[in-house]
User: What shape does this take?
Amino acid sequence: SLKILDEAADQPDCLKEIIFHKPDLQKMGKEGIQLHIRWLSVHEGLKYLQEIGFVQTELELWLKEKNVAYMRELEESQRLGYNSHNSAGTIFSRNSRFNDNDLWIPPHFF
Assistant: This one.
């Protein structure tokens, strides 16, 4: 169900509708927290997450440790992506140009 919510959150109207229902995603592990982080991109999400204390707690975690873990994850994704195939079957190399549809960047706090 989180995958469906995550996909729906790509559409601004759907993201606002998800936020309106205020599902508690913190209990859903890393994927739930990543979806909450995506809520920070809209006013309604930021306001709600501030009310429940998520923003301050998550900020402290990112300053302390999550920023380094995120960079490691991103670097590993890029390393794997440089010599892998995209959805069209093209092999990426260090000199390849990426299309927006080929590169996924995980949600981040900053």
Remarks:
- Residues 82 and 94 are 6 Å apart (CA to CA).
